[in-house]
Amino acid sequence: MHGEEARKHYFFEAFKMALYGTTLNRDVTIKAANGESMKALKVFTEALQYLKEDALKTISAKAGRELIASDFTWVLTVPAIWDPSAKQFMREAATQAGIVTKGKEARLVIALEPEAASVWCKKLPAEGFITENHGGYKLDQSPGTQYIVVDCGGGTIDITVHEVLDGGALKELHKASGNDLGGQTVDKKFKEFLREIFCDGVWDE
């Protein structure tokens, strides 16, 4: 899609980070590639609605019967650096997307991305995490193991530190934290570097 046709459409790239460092309300807007703006709540709602419908379609096909959103508890992950207003914004977008309905808000869990990654990691084989006495067990069968999860995403880098307890539960050794220096920032800095190397206007052409 090029030229005039492209300018008629709204394309939002890496829009998740629009919620970082912003005073959020229902009227906050984000800018599309064509220069036009749209309310951020609508953009996030539409994205979540698409993901919800695609997930339900895929799971229903596997189950052999039609399933609806209220059949599940949904887990929505957010960066560790997001403040309460950004988390509430995502909860509202999820509600408008039909992921949860009034009276069933408990079916939506907002989880930090590095903590969700850590829960997944504890199901992985201990080999590769520790160098001895792993005996082929998974991490959740290796109490006393301490590990760090560094989640390097497009927008943020999030870090959490956990210890495996008896029974497979996790103990937080350090509060999840992070910054906004993910892959998108690396891309931006690399482009700035190239602009410094080449003559004025060469990169933009």
UniProtKB/TrEMBL annotation:
GO molecular function ontology, one term from the record: ATP binding
Signal peptide (residue range): none
Keyword Cytoplasm: no
Keyword ATP-binding carried by entry: yes
Top-level division of the source organism's lineage: Eukaryota
Pfam families hit by this protein: HSP70 (PF00012)
Keywords, comma-separated and alphabetical: ATP-binding, Nucleotide-binding, Stress response
Family that this chain belongs to: Belongs to the heat shock protein 70 family.
Protein name in the entry: Heat shock 70 kDa protein 12A-like protein
Source organism: Lates japonicus (Japanese lates)
